[in-house]
């Protein structure tokens, strides 16, 4: 139980940290219109196309290392700098730890290629 508690606290700590988002703006891939990243928006008001989040990846390259990411708890917030959420208070998690999905008795097996006969 200690390990689970430790992981839970590490996730809460990372979610509460003020990690800089490198999100710069939102942009429509169809017409090129720019939108503020500080307002909730999903489609372009001019052409109804879904809009994309744009990031300052050049600045991110110089300030974040693979080692820093590797040391963070597994889960979506490991990648906070590359997610379109700036305020830690808006970060939520469903408790996942970044493990690959598996089937359950209720949902059945995960669809995918069949396993060879010797591995069933």
Describe this structure in words.
The protein contains three helices and three strands. It has 120 residues and is α+β, with helices and mostly antiparallel strands. The chain has one domain. A three-stranded antiparallel beta sheet has the order 2-1-3, with no helix packed on it. The longest helix has 15 residues, at 2-16.
Give the helix tally. 3
Major sheet characteristics: 3 strands, antiparallel
Low-confidence stretches: none
Structural Rg: 19 Å
Describe the global form. globular
Mean pLDDT, all residues: 76
Query: What percent strand?
Result: 5-15%
Structural class: alpha+beta
Task: Please render the helix and strand layout as text.
Layout: H1 2-16, E1 23-27, E2 34-35, E3 52-55, H2 57-63, H3 66-71
Antiparallel strand pairs: 1-2, 1-3
What's a concise summary of this model?
It is built from three helices and three strands.
Q: What are its keywords?
A:
single chain; three-stranded antiparallel sheet; alpha+beta; 120 residues; 3 helices
């Amino acid at each position: 139980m200690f390990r689970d508690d430790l992981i839970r606290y590490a996730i809460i700590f990372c979610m509460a940290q003020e990690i800089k988002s490198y999100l710069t703006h939102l942009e429509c891939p169809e017409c090129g219109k720019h939108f503020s990243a500080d307002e909730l928006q999903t489609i372009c008001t001019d052409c109804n196309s879904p809009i994309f989040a744009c990031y300052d990846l050049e600045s991110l390259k110089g300030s974040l290392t693979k080692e820093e990411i590797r040391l963070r708890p597994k889960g979506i917030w490991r990648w906070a700098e590359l997610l379109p959420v700036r305020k830690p208070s808006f970060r939520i998690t469903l408790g996942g730890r970044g493990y690959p999905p598996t089937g359950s008795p209720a949902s059945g097996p995960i669809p995918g290629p069949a396993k060879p006969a010797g591995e069933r």
